[in-house]
Specification:
The chain is built from twelve helices and no strands. The protein has about 230 residues and is mainly α. Helix 4 crosses helix 6.
Length: about 230
């Protein structure tokens, strides 16, 4: 015998509620009628109603915290940026940050990341940071084992050269592209980030030395030869 689903009532038991199927729009209508938050996934709505039936007071602070977050303008994004108080948003600025962090040409936000932000808003977690959001992303996408596309590898090299040229210390080199390529070949097969850092100039100075030249009193070819003899 198939039992007809009863109308929802605050006197309904949790067992009664969970044994029937409810559409998301029905759950939202129930929440709205009983002055509960209508935001979130179907599972979040069901959990909220179950808490309501168990007599728990609503603890959803999402609407308030979402307003706090949206009213803030984050000028820069770092790993330490706090999602709510610093006004983090899933926008072009955030996408560019993640692209640079992972050194990829494209980056897409995930449902897991959006759910984590909603949960932080719901529970009032003002300490959740971009670094925490990255952990959620990596757990869901297994990014550590993700193979790079040829386009991603090209992007890494282009970014490496751009950062290399921005470094004022590289102006002394006779052939900057050769030096950049030399450093790139040093780091691309090593563990760690394949990004340009100024400390690479010091770390691989002996390899770079033949390309060193400055019109303003720097080393010339004779100086290089003498330097080699004196080592």
């Amino acid at each position: 015998m198939i039992l007809e689903r009863p109308e929802f009532s605050r006197k309904m038991s949790v067992e009664q509620f969970t044994q029937y199927y409810w559409y998301k729009e029905e759950l939202k209508a129930i929440c709205k009628h009983h002055e509960l938050s209508t935001q979130g996934t179907k599972a979040e709505l069901e959990s909220r109603i179950i808490d309501f039936l168990n007599g728990k007071k609503p603890t959803n602070m999402r609407n308030k915290n979402m307003k706090v977050r949206k009213n803030q303008n984050s000028s820069t994004i770092t790993l330490q940026t706090k999602l709510i108080p610093d006004g983090f948003k899933f926008n072009k600025q955030a996408r560019d940050f993640f692209k640079d962090y992972y050194q990829v040409s494209k980056f897409s936000f995930t449902k897991d990341m959006a759910a984590a932000l909603r949960e932080a808003e719901r529970t009032g977690d003002y300490n959740m940071t971009v670094a925490d959001l990255l952990k959620v992303y990596e757990a869901g996408s297994n990014v550590a084992n993700k193979k790079q596309t040829a386009e991603d590898k090209t992007y890494e090299w282009n970014q490496f050269v751009t950062d290399f040229n921005k470094d004022s210390r590289t102006k002394v080199y006779k052939n900057k592209m050769k030096v950049a390529a030399l450093l790139w070949n040093k780091v691309k097969h090593q563990a760690g980030p394949r990004t340009y850092r100024s400390e690479l100039l010091e770390k691989f100075k002996d390899d770079i030395l033949p390309h060193f030249y400055s019109k303003k009193g720097g080393l010339n070819d004779d100086d290089v030869s003498m330097n080699r003899m004196n080592r």
